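re the bet — no i am not wrong, look at it urself. input seq straight from the record:
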Amino acid sequence: MSVMLCATVVAQPSYNTVSGVVRDAQTGKRLAQVSITSPDGHEATVTNADGFFTLKSSAPLTTIIVSSLGYNTQRVPVTADSQGLKIRLTPGTITLNELIVNAANPYEIVEVARSKIPQNYSKNNELMRCFYRETTQRGRRYIYVAEAVTDMYKSSYTRPATTDRVSIIKGRKLVSPKETDTLGAKIQGGPTLPVALDVVKIPEFLLSEEEILHYSLRMEVPTLIDDRPQVVIAFEPRYSVDHVLYYGRMYIDRQTLAFTRIEMSLDMHDQDRATEVMLLHKPAGVRFRPRELTTTISYRYDGHVSRMHYLHSDIRFHCDWRKRLFSSPYHVEAEMVVTDLVSEEAKPIPSRASFSGRDSFYDKVGFFNDPDFWGQYNIIEPSESLESAINKLKKQKY
C-alpha cells in the first residue's frame, strides 16, 4: 500500500502557502491527522477529515515533511510553480526483532519510560502557538462551531503542571439559532484540554507507579512514527477501582523510551463515574447518558526532546428532556495542533490573561464575519462537511 499527496504552492503577499490532499494511492481514501511540517519544524499543521491541509510560512518553503503513523516519513520538495505534486509514501518496515520485543515485560518498559520523562521532554519553560477547534453535532447536524488561535505556556517537565496555562489570541464561533438545538449542558473541553490531558506531565492520570497497576498491559506489533520505531503497549482495566479507568494503547520511542502517542477510551461500565468525567453542568430536567469518550495525545521528537504536538477528543452522549418524547444524540469533537514553538525561555501567562477550565469558550470569542479571519496563522482546515455546516449556520444566524 502507498500514499499519494497532491499539493500546490500559492504565493501570498506576507507569507507562503502550501496546500494539498493526502490520499491512499491504491484506494483513493483520504487520510486524516497526517502531520505536515516545515523542515525546521517551526510551522506545522495536520490534515483534516478529508485529508486536506494548508501550511503557511513566513519564509519561502522548498520542502515539507509529511508523516503518518505506520508510514515512512517523506521530505517533499515544493516550488513556486509546482502544480499537483504526486508523492507516494510506503508503509514503514519494522526491523526490530519482534519476538524479543514482544517477550519484554511491558510494566518494566513503562517504568523506565516514566523515569526518563525529565530528560526526554523539555527542561525549559516554553510558549507554543496552537490552533484549537471544537464542534457539536446533534445527530448529523452541526449546531455549534468554535475555533481559536491560542498561546500555550508549558513549564519544564521537571516541574508540576500547575503553572501551565492557555491564552486566546483570536477566535470565532457559530451557534444554531434554533431553540430546540440549545444543549445547555457543559461538557469537558475547551482550549485548556492540552494542559489538563498532558498525560506525560501528569503521570498520575495513567502512568504513575500506583495507577499503572490497575491495568493489564500487553505488547503489540511495533510500528513507526516519524521514521522512528515504536514499542506499542495495549492497556485495559484489570479490575474495578473507585475511579474511572481507560482502554487504549501507548507508543514508546524504541531509542529514547519517550512516550510518543497515547490513545485512551473511557471505560463506560460505570455510567455515573463516566458522567462525572464528561459532564461539568446540565440544566434541571435533563438526563445525561454517556456513550463514548476517546482521546489521542501525540508528542513529537525534534532530535533533542519531545513536545506535545496534537490532541483529538471525541465525546458522544444522549440527552433526554422531560417534556420531549425522544432523546437526542450529540457528538462533541475537539482538536488542537501546535503550529509553532514561539519561545524556549518563556515567562508564564498571567492568570488574568489566561483561559480557565471554568471559563466558557463561547463567551470568549466573537462570531464568524471575516473570510480572511486567520490571516497568516496556521490552522486545521475545515473539512468539506464542516465548511458546508458553517455556511448553513451563517445563513441561519445572519
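see?? The longest helix spans residues 384-397. told u. also The longest strand covers residues 286-301. so pay up
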